Each structure stands twice: as C-alpha cells, then as structure tokens.
Amino acid sequence: MDQTVSNPLFVPFDRPLLICFSHLRWDFVFQRPQHLMTRAAATYTVVFFEEPVFEPVQTPVLRRKPVASGLEVVTPVLPHHQPRIEIDRAMAILLESLVASIEHDQLVAWYYTPMALKFTAALQEDVCVYDCMDELSAFKNAPPELQRLEQQLFGRADVVFTGGMSLYEAKRSQHPSVHAFPSSIDTAHFHQARRRQADPSDQQTIAHPRVGFFGVIDERFDIDLMARTAAAMPAVQFVTIGPVVKIDPATLPAGPNIHWLGPKRYAELPSYMAGWDVGWMPFALNDATRYISPTKTPEFLAGGLPLVSTAILDVVQTYGRRGLVEIADAGSMPGALRTALRKGCGEMAKVDAFLSGMSWDATWSAMHDLLKPAKVLRLTKLSRLVDHV
C-alpha cells in the first residue's frame, strides 16, 4: 500500500540517512544507481527520491515503497497543471517533511541530477555527493538550465564521482575532489548466461545465429546502423531488448531478421543472453555518447559473449585496446560480427582475469571511504567560516 509522509519509516536513531536524488526511476532499468544504493542500504537508511508524477490528487503527497531492507523509493505525487514554481515549492515541502519523519544522526545528499537543486536549497546535509554518471546536458530534451545548475552543484558538493574516464577528464578541473568510478559488474549474476538453459518463450522461435543487445533504446542507439547491418546479414537474427524512450517507436527498423522484444527485468537478462551467439553495442557517435561508459560492456563479457561495439571512447580505451571488445564502424560492422560469430567465446580466461578486479561491492566500498574525509572537509570549512565571522 502506498504511504504518505505522515507514516514515518522506523530506523535506529544512530543510523545515517542517505537521500538519493535521481532523474532515473527505480523500476526503469537496473543500473548504476540501483547497484550502489542497494549496497549503501547496508550502512544507511536509503531514500531513493524520484522525480514527480502528476495525478488527479487534491494536494501533494509522497508515495513510499520499500524495495529492499533499509531502502525505499519515494515518489512525489502532485496535482495536474501546477505551475513550475509551485512544483518546486511543493517538492521542497515534501522533502522537508520526509527528512523530519526519519530519525538519523547524519544526512548524506547524493545527487544524480543537478535539477534537484531547484527544491533542495534548504536541505542541511552533512555530506553532499554528486555522482555524475552521464553528461546529461548532451542528452535529448535536456533542460536549458541544467548546465547552470551543475555548476551550482559543483560548488555545493564535497566530493564528485564520475561514471567513466572520459567524464572524469571533462569534470576534473571543475571541482577539487573528483574521482573516476567507471561502470562495474555483478559477475555472479551475468555468469548465469554461460550455462545452457531454456530460451524465454518470446525468443524460442528465433533462429540462430543471433546477435543481441540489451539496454535503453534512445538517441544513443544507432537505428540506421541496425537497419544497414541487418540488411547486410540476412541469415543473422538481431535481437534487441529494452525500453524505447525519447524516439518514435515507428522509426525503428523492421525486417524478417530484426526482433524487438521490449523491456525485461534485470533478473531475466542472463536467460536471454544465454541464447545469443554474439553481443553488440551499436551506439551512435554523437554528443549523447561522447562521455558514456556503458555498464553493459562488462555485463556482456561476464555473460561469456564475444562483443562488438562502435568506437565509444571509454570502450575503446578500456576494452578495445586490451582485445576484449572488437571495435567496428558502419562499414566494418558486418565483417566484425561475422568474425565474432566464427570465433565464438574466445579467450574467456583473459576476460575473466580482467573482470576479476571489478565489482559493485568494491566500487561502493571505495566511494564510501571517500565520504568520511568529505565530511571532515565540510566540518573544516564550517569551522573556518565561524572563525572568520
């Protein structure tokens, strides 16, 4: 049952509170925020604060949904047709009531989107984190004020994390404490794709060989490359799973060897991947992909699939140069996929040796260690301000 803010979450008083402000909904695609926040919940009371939804309600309320031990998703529910300034004011009031309802001895504000600054000005956090997982200003339909708000967030944050090395290089000069944490991997989960298993029902009738992709289908996905490659390889079946957002589904290419299977749960991914022969990442090379570090890269490799990708910089530098991922452009993509299909899994020992140094557990542990000196730094700053006054 949905809960409003009047029903507080009971937690021990000495447990710190972490509020994560995200532009991505918890149930959309299980990725970096979900991996990190589920691990944070072992130490913190974690509130995943989503962007608002608009429904026929009379007054703003918070919808609260526990999703794991120590972690709940909170969604502001606002009346339809509210002016922008009223939205921000309502969000601020809901947030203030939420924080007051949860006993805690310290507060960490964790931002994935600078847009949350529009309603968090009064928040009195002990530590402020900006986990910059993407260059959001380069995405389609990005708010015009996003870059300005990001500069404000750099001024407020005690520590900044980036989702890849390209983003690190772009952001490192904008804050004194920037740390690169590229995409990691839940190895045990994706190792399940290496064993034989029954195909999911909507994949059973698709012939082999199969080339597969999973992820969000948006302006970063090169639909023209998909169409040309599928046309050049009529005997190969192209399977794609994931939600379609920000682009018209009618523009997706169609053909007898192209299969759009829609969104799937994170738990289902290995069963689909187990039935694929090759993975590929047909990303467009545009502003939206300039700084991405796709989480699916190590996930494909952990699943035991040979992988072909377009020349995404972080993929080239981290995986291509080590021979773990084949890099191809539009002209060479059919040939690269044919080679991958012929070679099969290849050097799994080399892949596994590289992936053995990666895990979301290790990533969270390293991030958490940096929060402690960040708190000390903030206390030092406050002390200096008091002394100055």
Provide structural commentary:
The chain is α/β, with parallel strands linked by helices and 389 residues long. It contains twelve helices and 15 strands. It has helices at 32-40, 84-101, 146-156, 165-171, 187-191, 223-232, 269-273, 296-302, 313-320, 333-343, 348-355, 360-388; strands spanning 17-21, 45-49, 53-55, 61-68, 71-79, 107-111, 127-132, 159-162, 178-180, 210-214, 237-241, 258-262, 278-281, 307-309, 326-327. The strands form two sheets. Strands 1, 2, 3, 4, 5, 6, 7, 8 and 9 form a nine-stranded mixed sheet that branches. Strand 8 (159-162), helix 4 and strand 9 form a beta-alpha-beta unit. Helix 1 (32-40) packs across helix 12. The longest helix has 29 residues, at 360-388. The termini are far apart. The model is unreliable at 1-13 and 382-389 (pLDDT under 50).
